[in-house]
């Protein structure tokens, strides 16, 4: 049940609501009190079916619309750095909200909750999702858990993740693959090195292939991605007088969403043909799906030119379930996790206005 004391007012201005959410600390693992308050605040609204599952809260309309969209955000933050409770500077259009979670991503959650209660009859059915444990190990991620246990809760034709994107649309996301290239030699005393085989020297060929690698910049669904294949670590050697018998080069491949996981793995294996390669981590990207009617209408309401999302985000979890998704939320992503985390109030207002319009206007109206 909801803790007594602080109640959220979801009818407040979304900028005020951002501050209400920020001031309830919810570092990953401690989302419970905030989840309780969000649930309690949503329950009274008869147009919403509210589902609580752990610290995930789902509120959805069931109006029988032709289309359902999923709009999600995480309610946890990274640890506080002396930056709570929130404060503001400036005023009017230049108002800035400061504090942990303002950018990543309670501004986005405030937009969601404000619209969830205000839009009693959206033109598209909406599934609003607030989830936990985004900022920690992937196995704990609330959206991932719901996707595994109740994929039907995430069903929809289009998804929006309200992660900070400067209130602009960032489509899809690139995938990420990490692999270890394990080189094996033969140990020997370095005074008689010809009796051994130096595994670190063998890394030279691995590094040569990386240095000469030409990353692709493919256009996927109209957005230009930019791949990269890089060494991100190298280990080897046990002592200053021993020829090393092992060396491991760790590489990270960031791949555009026109490749699936197995194609990305095959590509990396091909680049390093002849070497012992073990894939240690692999998360697929997500296509932006901007050619879909719902997405195209969303782009026309938001305006500007959508960009490709180069980092990996939870939009890929939608993609795995066949739901194309974009990132769209208030705040500059470079302020996420920063000690001087902040969010321009104007971004919150802009995201709120764009989503309100997209969910209130009949399909096909208001383009331009
Ligand atoms: Zn985030």
What does this structure look like?
The protein contains nine helices and 19 strands. It has 368 residues and is an alpha+beta fold. The strands form five sheets. Strands 1-2-6-3-7-18-8-17 form an eight-stranded mixed sheet, sandwiched between helices. The chain has a four-stranded antiparallel sheet with strand order 13-15-9-16, with helices on one face. Strand 11 and strand 12 (223-224) form a beta hairpin. The model is unreliable at 1-5 (pLDDT under 50). It binds zinc ion (ZN). Residues 74, 104-105, 134, 163 line the site of zinc ion.
Record keyword descriptors for this entry:
368 residues, alpha+beta, eight-stranded mixed sheet, 24% strand
SSE blueprint:
Elements: H1 14-22, H2 32-42, E1 49-53, E2 56-60, E3 68-74, E4 87-89, E5 96-98, H3 102-118, E6 125-131, H4 142-149, E7 158-161, E8 170-171, E9 175-184, E10 188-189, H5 199-211, E11 219-220, E12 223-224, E13 228-236, E14 242-243, E15 246-255, H6 261-271, E16 276-283, H7 293-302, E17 307-308, H8 315-320, E18 325-327, E19 342-344, H9 345-360
Parallel strand pairs: 3-6, 3-7, 7-18, 8-17
Antiparallel strand pairs: 1-2, 2-6, 4-5, 5-19, 8-18, 9-15, 9-16, 10-14, 11-12, 13-15
Helix pairs in contact: 1-3, 3-9, 7-9
This protein binds zinc ion.
Q: Quick gist of this model?
A:
27% of the residues lie in helices and 24% in strands.
The total count of strands amounts to: 19
Based on secondary structure, the structural category is: alpha+beta
Overall outline: elongated
Model regions low in confidence, pLDDT < 50 over at least 5 residues:
1-5
Strand content: 15-25%
**End-to-end distance, in Å?**
46 Å
Bound molecules: zinc ion
The sequence of SSEs as H and E is HHEEEEEHEHEEEEHEEEEEHEHEHEEH
Reported for the largest beta sheet, the result is: 8 strands, mixed
- Fraction of residues in helix: 25-40%
Question: What is the helix tally?
Answer: 9
User: What average pLDDT do the residues reach?
Assistant: 93
Neighbour order of strands in the largest sheet: 1-2-6-3-7-18-8-17
Report the radius of gyration as a whole number of Å.
24 Å
